Amino acid sequence: MKEIIKAVEKIAIEISELLKYGDFSYAKSSNSTGDTQLKLDILSDEIIENRLKKLSNIKAIISEEKESILEINSNADYIIAYDPLDGSSLVDVNFAVGSIFGIYKGSLDARSLVGAIYVVYGPRLEMVVCDDSVRLFRLNRDNEFKFIKNLELKDRGKINATGGTQKGWSDSHRAMIKSLFDDGYRLRYSGAMVSDLHQVLLKGGGLFSYPATPDAPNGKLRVAFEVLPFAYIYEKAGGATTDGVNDSLLDIKIEKTHQTTPCYFGSKFEIDRVKNG
Ligand code: AFP
């Protein structure tokens, strides 16, 4: 695990440099989910692949930008599923974006997650590492990640980060979102999952939702690379998650590498509200 964290630190610094000075135009290709790829998506994926390939404890890697699993060491333990550059369509407007890593031991299964890490490329470079606890690190002037604090969600927050095409929301979803606003919750939504979930986590709680809609019947966010790593982090931070059906997002079975799901992450109070309508 330590080796993986060190590799992610190096990856974060490299991608951060790429974001500052790299070309943010589109490539001619698209990824498995059909998203048009930016050159930055492809280069970030290469940076991560090259770093992770050097580790002897990595069995395989799975990237949002790759069609299939890349086997590395058949006898090793860890499978890393990652989104190299989440929110990349916001790089042109200079919003904070991120990288997400799910660390699975043995098999690509939610209950095999042993850790998750995400990086936020904002005005500062931050990294949240979760194994048994959830810890925030920040890059200092000497290019070292320094521990800042442990992160915990309160039982109830104030933020309502609502995704998905609103005209496609179900009546029950619309009513639940409205009831939170009626209770004084504030809208915070940038369109980059990493930044939006980072905000809810650092401000102590609230709700991030991306429901099923007719234009995205299984939601938009990808289970293996985005949803499960964040579900792991939120639940370890004392929060809760659901897909609207299961008690926890960690109950979802991964059937396809690029599978998506509706998802809700938050403090316990807001997730109870989602579950109870
Ligand atoms: P991009 O990586 O294409 O910018 O997509 C970002 C993302 O996967 C996730 O980070 C956001 O939460 C979500 O899409 C935003 O989707 P909407 O634009 O439909 O709100």
Question: In terms of topology, how is this protein built?
Answer:
Elements: H1 2-21, E1 26-30, E2 36-38, H2 39-53, E3 58-63, E4 70-71, E5 78-86, E6 97-105, E7 113-121, E8 125-130, E9 134-139, E10 145-150, E11 159-162, H3 171-182, E12 186-187, H4 193-202, E13 206-210, H5 223-236, E14 240-242, E15 263-266, H6 268-276
Parallel strand pairs: 3-5, 11-12, 11-13
Antiparallel strand pairs: 1-2, 3-4, 5-6, 6-7, 7-8, 8-9, 9-10, 13-15, 14-15
Helix pairs in contact: 1-2
Written description of the protein model:
With 277 residues, the protein is of the alpha+beta class. The chain has six helices and 15 strands. The chain has two domains: 2-150, Fructose-1,6-Bisphosphatase, subunit A, domain 1 (Fructose-1,6-Bisphosphatase, Chain A, domain 1), CATH 3.30.540; 159-275, 3-Layer(aba) Sandwich (D-Maltodextrin-Binding Protein, domain 2), CATH 3.40.190. The protein has an eight-stranded mixed sheet, with helices on both faces. The protein has a five-stranded mixed sheet with strand order 12-11-13-15-14, with helices on both faces. Helix 1 (2-21) packs antiparallel against helix 2. The N and C termini lie far apart (39 Å). Bound molecules: 1,6-di-O-phosphono-alpha-D-fructofuranose. 1,6-di-O-phosphono-alpha-D-fructofuranose binds at residues 35, 86-90, 163, 191-193, 220-221.
